Amino acid sequence: MRRERRPASFWILAAFFALFVLFLYGPLSAIMILSFQGPDGGLTFPLNGVSLHWFRNLTEQQAVGDFGGSFRRSFTLGLMVMAATVVVSLLAGLAFRRRFVGATPLFYLTVASLVVPSIIISLGIGVMFQQIGIRPSWYGSAFGAHLTWTLPFGVLIMFAVFNRFSPSYEEAARDLGASPWQTFRHVLLPMIAPMLVGVGLFGFTLSYDEFARSLMTAGTYNTLPLEIYAMTTNVTTPVLYALGTVTTLFSFLVISLTLAVIVWLGRRRARA
Amino acid sequence: MAIAVEQPAVAPARTTRARLASVPGRLVAYLQAAPLALILGFFLLAPIVMIVVVSFWDYDFARLYPDFILTNYVDTLGSWVTWRTYLNTLKYAVIVWALTLFIGFWVAYFLAFHVRSTTMQTVLFLVCTVPFLTSNIIRMISWIPVLGRNGLVNAALLKTGVVSAPVEWLLYSDFAVVLAMVHLYTLFMVTPIFNTLMRIDRSLIEAARDAGANAWQVLWNVVLPLAKPGMAIGTIFVVTLVMADFITVQVMSGGQSASVALMMRNQMSLLQYPAAAANAVVLLVLVLLMVAGILRVVDIRKEL
Q1: Minimal Cβ distance to B284: which of A116, A144, A167
Q2: A120 touches chain B (CB under 8 A)
Q3: pLDDT tens digits along B17-51
Q4: Looking at residue B113, which CATH number applies to its domain?
Q5: Helix H or strand E encompassing B262
Q6: Taking CA atoms, which of A27, A44, A224, B207 is between 20 and 30 Å from A33?
Q7: Global pTM?
Q8: How many CB atoms are closer than 10 A to CB A7?
Q9: Complex ipTM, two decimals?
Q10: Yes or no: is domain A66-236 CATH 1.10.3720.10?
């Protein structure tokens, strides 16, 4: 690539970008540091000694409520939403490649799912379940509520993927005598696999962090964001930050693993 | 959902597409679309219909009574508190929209036009994306040690002698609400704008330069018009998210400000579901009108 001198606008925008990144990560790092606060420390700087006191505190039920249980529920729910989002989005993406009656209304319904305020979905599902007489639960009503948020992302991503996908690969496979299933399994799927992993990441993290849609749909047992929210109103010690640090690191771990899988898939394809 | 079982009226013509499957292609499409249609039908469409129905119901502290009364709407629209709350929510929407659009455009512009290698672009884009995939509530809480009375900003201001007493309005104020919303939602602006900027044919910019346009003219007459669809999609995201927000308003204003969704949330916690439903219908109509207005500017189907 030709090396030319960077114009002044580059440096101004680079500084702007750096400030933006600082704005994104600064506060987050503040609570990460403060979660190592000494046992007598408070919610703000300075650090009053360094300890793991607040992380230990996290495991005690009376200090923070049911952290372990809510984490397990959110994790399981995230996996369920992830699996459903990947499968349903992929199928819908394939359907939209053909013409069918109702394709346009279904597309607009999907977009509507993205713009309808989350609290309205929460209220609607909550009241509907109450009137039908089904008890709301995190694995039932909340699962459905989360899907209304993750599916539009998944479907729109698949829509974009298939818009750029040339049918000539499948035609070639068919001409070579592949059955529709073989074409799907050995031609289409490997090519779109990285995008599907991305859709899965969206499904998991959006569900894992969802608050408003769980509000009236989670039923008796809290998911993690509901638990964290309850803590913000009644916990005034750095144990709140410890919880924030743990869940954020967990999110980072999930994101890194996903990226690793995407890179690995890319390499494997490049080798093949 | 009827379309799941609906058979194609005529056998599909034997086009290349239809030969893809041994089952008639059209039927396959219906089966593939069925899960999405069923889920959205049951968890999106039915709840909204339910809300519309319930908004005409009567209620007391114990239960709901199926009815057809307009009291809930009259109460909602007849109260000046409602109007003030709507105005306040719209105020947040406008301010946050303007800020995220400005920040989002320049961040996307930097990534698309100033970062040269694709790898670096991907890495920097991921750096912007990662916080979006972490908990919103945690990201809100993380402003407490920064903006609080004894927080980092106040400590710095006191030390440098800019102020003599801690600034009180940094946290638990409209300022904090807007700051947190910008913090949470800017990415929704960055991504679509970045996407459209990446698809601008670079030869257009070279042509403009060759024709004698300076940097500002290129930006104003070439890049900005072509970035409009991305800006419109980002605007839809940000505006609908702000209009639906209640937790940022509640946490960051310390209960001192209101938003429409927060008003609904309070009615819901008092089990006044029909009142909340009436509010929900008004809010939904308003949001859909705003989105329809933006969609008149851009056909998002073309953008995917």
Answers
A1: A116
A2: yes
A3: 444 444 566 788 889 999 999 999 999 999 999 99
A4: 1.10.3720.10
A5: helix B260-269
A6: A224
A7: 0.87
A8: 11
A9: 0.87
A10: yes
